[in-house]
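Postdoc handover notes: sequence design on the structure in folder B. Input tokens:
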């Protein structure tokens, strides 16, 4: 895996951190979760920008948001008891397939 793709993967994971962190900030009224969430936001976007030096912007952004969407949806089920209906799981699977498809389509980048 190239450095750009590794940075993109880390940026996507940090997107999950800040998206889940938003729930724990309680509208940015709790200081520690708020600081962690804001730091994850900044780091995620910064790493995305670095990754885009070697990955097409459309591919990079779609993969970044896909990682964030899948991770946040899964953790929503695990942490917050959100529904894990068959349709929801199929849709998460489709997003994962799209992420892998975009990686394959990007080829050597």
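Designed sequence:
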């Amino acid at each position: 895996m190239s450095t750009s793709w590794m940075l993109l993967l880390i940026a996507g994971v940090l997107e999950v951190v800040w998206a889940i962190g938003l729930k724990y900030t309680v509208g940015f009224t709790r200081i520690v979760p708020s600081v962690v969430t804001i730091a994850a936001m900044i780091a995620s976007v910064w790493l995305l920008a670095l990754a885009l030096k070697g990955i097409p912007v459309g591919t990079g952004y779609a993969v970044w948001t896909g990682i964030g969407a899948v991770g946040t949806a899964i953790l929503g089920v695990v942490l917050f008891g959100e529904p894990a209906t068959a349709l929801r799981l199929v849709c998460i699977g489709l997003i994962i397939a799209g992420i892998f498809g975009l990686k394959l389509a990007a080829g050597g980048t």
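Context for whoever picks this up: The first helix runs from residue 3 to 25. Don't rerun without checking with the PI first.
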